[in-house]
């Protein structure tokens, strides 16, 4: 199972028809990304980074893809190509490039600081925006490609091991060694077929730039490698690399969901402190109307039509309540009678919603009734069927969040049906923070919060995130989700889960029944 996220040089109509081998930057998603942080909210596990260097057409990209294939079920692997980081060229340099008289194989042709910066962000589990370079135009384009969420990053390029700043980011350094005649034959085939070059131009560029660069800059970097991989017949080396990578990831594995519950259950001073005293946890005032809505929503006898209607009513009330925590400024307007009236206006530069699928989408209609002209993104976070850990399977965030400069000025209203163990809430907040959204710019809107669940851990880790909820359930209990074989339940009767009591059942299932 793989999804291509990053493709260079192509418009939308061309991308679907390009074979995988012709694409450089690729995000391969298998089984979702598990937690990479602890209950204190801090990152405890960087992405594992492999640097793959070697001569032009030595087989670096092929080796990178073979590593991905050998890793099997390892979640979310990103292949990051150095070719994206060629510098922006002047008109004179472009003219030389079309005449095969520009040296693309010298270290100075590559924007090493940007390469290192993007890689450092990805290694630290932050988003980044990778430049796009067009070989057809010999130019870096204005567009960038958004990347986030890799567990393993493979950075490949002829100078991948040349720059000390890059080498410091690698957990494993690989050099692909290949016969020079074979590299030339591969380069001719590739440049004719994929880049539209002439044979004469390819040979001229090879003799003038490629071969001297390999001798002077590329081949010496083999001394920095942890392992030398042959450019062909390298299955043994690939298996060695993949085995080491799997072992490293296993050592970094993190059992998170149980910690969310047990840390709350074993922190009586925090659990016994009324949630109502938390200034950043806002509970809707209890009224006969609200109690009536919850009575209908909790009842197993409520039909689907009524459940949807009252779910939309409750989500509307919650989002309306959440709006008071957005920034406002004084504004004076003139009424139809010509009278000056003093009021307020919303002054957030960017505002968006993000729904945690799929139960979070049950709040979207209410959100749209209150705010109908802002983008709404989605996060797909589901539990691992074997151990119950949250997994990030997919994200589609609004544009203002995908760029760090605008994310810092973005207010986000997070939507989810409930905060039980808090595992999904925790992961969603971490994702937004790693994109640059400020903690006090996040408002989490939810129907229910479990007093003895993960909310206490969430409050300690993210004290400035505001949570707006309809009511608080006092208990969580352990149960089994039928049909899954999981940890501690090898007979397959069900998977252990934590459920809210009295709760509202599986809200997403009931809403979309």
Automatic annotation (TrEMBL):
Question: Which EC class, in a word?
Answer: transferase
Q: Which domain of life is it from?
A: Eukaryota
Tell me the ranges covered by the Phosphoribulokinase/uridine kinase domain, including all copies: 49-231
For this protein, the record's Gene3D superfamilies field holds: 3.40.50.2020, P-loop containing nucleotide triphosphate hydrolases
Query: What EC number(s) are associated with this protein in UniProt?
Result: 2.7.1.48
Q: Which InterPro entries match?
A: P-loop_NTPase, PRK/URK, PRTase-like, PRTase_dom, Uridine_kinase-like
Pathway listed? Pyrimidine metabolism; UMP biosynthesis via salvage pathway; UMP from uridine: step 1/1
Please give the Pfam families that the UniProt record associates with this protein: PRK, UPRTase
Q: Which GO terms describe its biological process?
A: pyrimidine-containing compound salvage
Q: Single GO molecular-function term? A: uridine kinase activity
Which intervals hold domain Phosphoribosyltransferase? 285-478
User: Which UniProt keyword terms apply here?
Assistant: ATP-binding, Kinase, Nucleotide-binding, Transferase
Stretch forming the signal peptide: none
Family membership noted in the UniProt record: Belongs to the uridine kinase family.
Protein name, per record:
uridine/cytidine kinase
